[in-house]
Amino acid sequence: MTEPQTHQPSHEPARAVLLTVGGSPAPVIYSLNKQQPQFICFFVTEESKGLISSAILPALTFHPQHHDWIVTPDGESLSACYRALRDNLQSILEKWEVGWGHLSVDYTGGTKVMSGAVLLATVKRVSRYTYIGSADPKGRAKSGVGVVLDGRERIFTETNPWKDMAEDELPSLALLFNHGQYGAAANLAEQLRDLVPTKMSAIYSAATEAIRGYREWDRFNYKTARNRLGQGRRDLVPYSIDKNDVLAQLARKLDEHIDFLTRL
Q1: pLDDT at 7 over 50
Q2: What CATH class is the domain 8-160?
Q3: Which of 80, 164, 246, 258 is the most exposed place for a label (fewest CB within 10 A)?
Q4: With the C-alpha atoms ordered 16, 117, 138, 25, is the resulting torsion angle positive or negative?
Q5: 159 - beta bridge partners?
Q6: Is the distance from CB of 25 to CB of 56 less than 8 angstroms?
């Protein structure tokens, strides 16, 4: 598995960006002008909401297609912040016809609680996070430990830590599969597929297809099951590096089941 690339500056455009907004609009403005997304969602308190129209939008050097906001009733309550995001972000993305994979999250502004909540609400779905910092201590107040000084900002891209946490979900995936919860297992495998590095993504994709094959078998759709198991097997084989590794063993098991289904 490839190592996550942390603290690497990135200026690639994002289709949509979710940002936390606090008392200073400067990092939000900097982030947006660097990323220049089509769609913007601001995560704000009632106190910081006014900055959207008074300070942030007028300072943008581009014209977003649309912007919206989510207001937390309490910027110091993790539960309140999380619920606000949980209950509203999905519908905003659907309105924009933007998938989670095209959403970038900037957690620089707002309270620490707001930043924590936005991470919790998106960690299983978003692959890209950004943070506005400084390239060196001289770019911060208070001898390098304070806020980033205006004009000394730099955008950093963080890969989702879920890429590293995905392995923790494998027992859950196995449990679902072993209890015949094939639909839920396939959904989890697909979710992991979208968040792990490229090579692992292909393996999870193959696993998703195979699990859906078992779901069809459970529904007595033998032909569809055989085809899906076969596709999963074909997709897994190129990533096997030894005839006795886990993937090779799985491929052999799939062969047995495909042969059984062929004889039905």
Answers
A1: no
A2: alpha beta
A3: 246
A4: positive
A5: 128
A6: yes
Average pLDDT, the chain: 84
Q: How many residues does the chain have?
A: 264
pLDDT at 238: 86
Alpha helix positions (H), the chain: 26-35, 46-49, 51, 78-96, 112-122, 141-144, 162-165, 170-178, 182-193, 198-218, 222-236, 246-262
Give tens-digit pLDDT for 195-219. 776 667 888 899 999 999 999 999 9
Q: How many CA atoms lie within 13 A of 181 on its CB side?
A: 11
Q: How far apart are CA 38 and CA 85, in angstroms?
A: 20
Instruction: Record the tokens describing residue 72, joined without a space.
Output: 């937390």
| 169-192 mean pLDDT | 89
The tens digit of pLDDT for each residue in 111-155 reads 999 999 999 999 878 878 998 876 655 544 444 434 555 665 667
- Angle (nearest 5°) at CA 26 between 93 and 81: 45
Backbone Cα Rg of the chain? 22
Q: Name the residue with higher pLDDT: 235 or 166.
A: 235
φ, ψ of residue 123 in degrees (nearest 5):
-60, -30
Enter the tokens of residue 119.
């991470």
Question: How far is it, in rounded angstroms, from Cα 257 to Cα 235?
Answer: 16
For 206, the token pair is 């193959």
**31 neighbors 154 (Cβ within 8 angstroms):** no
Q: Helix or strand or coil: residue 238?
A: helix
Write the CB contacts of 82 (distance below 8 Å, at least 6 apart in sequence). 117, 120, 121
Nearest-angstrom CA–CA distance, 42 and 52: 8
